[in-house]
TrEMBL record:
This is Maltose permease MAL31. The chain crosses the membrane at residues 52-80, 100-121, 133-151, 157-179, 191-214, 220-243, 314-336, 348-367, 379-399, 411-431, 452-468, 474-495. Pfam families: Sugar_tr. GO terms for molecular function: carbohydrate:proton symporter activity.
Length: 546
């Protein structure tokens, strides 16, 4: 070997040793941060991360608008003034009705828009970051609301619904991703599922507005609910101008100094005393590096490669399970109430009560279920219970002399709503936000939400045909249909849904890379294995806990 070559080899060896030493230091600091994250209780995290909690709540409030519209349009079909303006025929009782085709079209217009908006968001956030994309979406939504408010015919209304769906799709996929990236491990499930709470708040507001305006004699009965949608952009836009960007996004694009400043805005001095900002940053960098070593890219195509394919499947089916559990039937309950013979005023009061029950179910889930019960267990038993309720609704429809059976069926849809929010209503949002790798998190959530939208479009196309008196007129027998899809999802959960409670993102990376079966996730420990000489390899050692 020549002298020059020898000097180059020595220099390269020195650089490699320095890099190895830096990696070792990074791993040590990151490991300390992970340990501290596991030890941080929810109460300590609340005290240590109040600013992160605030910004997570504000971003998630954008979802209120989609929740508001979800119940608004579906329940307008039984609204006398709306049906009189946009209906196509008069039924045997002399009531104006929208045809099943137009019901399906209006219900799905915003869903199609949300699908496109959510898919685009996976690319937009990677390029521009969460903050700028959300602000732009709020501005665009403010303009599109004019179309629905001034709609003169059903076609104009359908176009307005579609266009409003574009920014809604952005909000609903950004909110859980942002929450999972700015909050510590012990708060992750609460504030990713807070997105669902915002959905419920939107539905509760809409239910209250509908109940309050049902006896208004003119077009303002349905125009005022549309106009109220302007409230949220006007309130949220100026506040979100000051929101910090996700530190995970900043690390992925190489802006470590900006990421550190963002962490300073999210962590209080109390949190920094236990988990320093530098340690938190080191954990983010180390997790990002691990995923690069595990060949985790950042494109949609990467979501379907290797272990990511399994993670994408879990996220997609968990989210789509919200529809497969029968939500299209239960959440359009006012139309069901009307078809089984309840008075218009009764239907909207019951609908408001059902939405309030959903809110109560969410709170009980947060304080009595999530801290103690795993994601897999909660989802499994929740889906099984929903399946049973839907089947009972179908069985009750067998009676020819119904008596009070109609009211019992109506009450069971409210019980369904309560159980839904105790279980999969929360976890349908939380699981996709934590199950994907950090480099693909936004795209995994977008794919999961779009899986929800695909199933929702299909269900909203066929649901009016099940219920409409001019079509199949199945009434309560519809419970058998959705009870069957709920049962199939129940079986899937047993074989495919792993336990992710209490896992850091790097632990999940390694467990999936090692191919740990779903039923063994709970009792497996993910860690990086070390080869001889202390040189770290990327992999996973799975150790069964006693």
């Amino acid at each position: 070997m020549s002298k020059a070559n020898g000097e180059e080899f020595a220099k390269a060896s020195q650089i490699e040793k320095t890099a190895s030493k830096a990696d070792a230091v990074l791993e040590h600091v990151a490991e300390a941060a992970r340990t501290a994250a596991h030890e941080l209780s929810p109460l300590e995290a609340v005290h240590g991360y109040p600013k992160a909690i605030f910004w997570s709540l504000i971003v998630s409030m954008c979802v209120i608008m989609e929740g508001y519209d979800t119940i608004l349009i579906g329940n307008f079909y039984a609204y006398p003034q709306f049906a009189a303006k946009f209906g196509q025929f008069v039924d045997a009782s002399g009531r104006p009705q929208l045809s099943a085709g137009w019901q399906a079209g209006l219900s799905n217009a915003s869903v199609v828009g949300c699908f496109i908006g959510g898919l685009a968001n996976g690319w937009l956030v990677t390029k521009f970051g969460q903050k700028r994309v959300i602000l732009a979406a709020l501005g665009v939504l403010s303009a599109f609301i004019f179309i629905t408010f001034f709609a003169q015919n059903i076609i104009m209304l359908l176009v307005g619904q579609f266009l409003c769906g574009l920014p809604w799709g952005i909000f609903v996929t950004s909110a859980p991703a942002y929450a999972s990236e700015v909050l510590p491990l012990s708060l992750r499930v609460y504030f990713t599922s807070w997105t669902n709470m915002c959905f419920i708040i939107g539905q509760l507001i809409a239910a209250g507005v509908l109940a309050g305006l049902v006896n208004t004699p003119d077009q303002w009965a349905y125009r005022i609910p549309f106009a109220l949608q302007w409230t949220w952009p006007a309130f949220l836009f100026p506040i979100l101008c000051f929101a910090p960007e996700s530190p995970w996004h900043l690390v992925r694009i190489g802006k470590l100094d900006v990421a550190r400043k963002s962490l300073q805005r999210l962590q209080s001095s109390e949190a920094s005393a236990k988990i320093s900002i530098d340690a938190t940053l080191a954990e983010i960098v180390h997790t990002n590096n691990t995923e690069i070593e595990l060949q985790s890219g950042t494109s949609y195509r990467d979501c379907f490669k290797g272990p990511e394919r399994r993670r994408t499947e879990i996220a997609c089916v968990s989210f789509a399970g919200q529809v497969l559990s029968g939500s299209t039937f239960a959440y359009n309950s006012t139309y069901f109430f009307q078809q089984v013979g309840l008075a218009t005023s009764e239907t909207y009061y019951l609908n408001t009560g059902g939405t309030a029950l959903a809110l109560v179910g969410t709170l009980i889930s947060w304080f009595a279920i999530m801290p103690y019960v795993g994601r897999r267990t909660t989802y499994f038993f929740g889906m099984g219970t929903l399946c049973a309720i839907l089947t009972i609704i179908g069985v009750l429809n067998v009676w020819t002399d119904k008596g009070n059976v109609d009211m019992v069926q109506a009450v069971l849809t409210l019980v369904w709503t309560f159980v839904f929010q105790l279980s999969i209503g929360q976890l349908g949002w939380a699981i996709p936000a934590e199950i994907g790798s950090t480099r693909l998190r936004q795209k995994t959530i977008c794919l999961a939400r779009n899986s929800y939208y695909i199933v929702a479009v299909i269900s909203q196309v066929i649901q009016p045909y099940f219920m409409n008196p001019g079509e199949l007129n199945l009434s309560g027998y519809t419970g058998f249909v959705w009870g069957s899809t709920a049962f199939l999802t129940f079986v899937w959960v047993w074989f495919r849904l792993p336990e992710s409670k209490g896992r850091t993102f790097e632990e999940l990376d390694l467990l999936f890379a090692h191919g740990v079966p779903a039923r063994k996730f709970k009792n497996a420990e993910g860690r990086r294995k070390t080869a001889r000489g202390g040189v770290e390899e990327v992999g996973c050692a799975v150790v069964k806990q006693s």
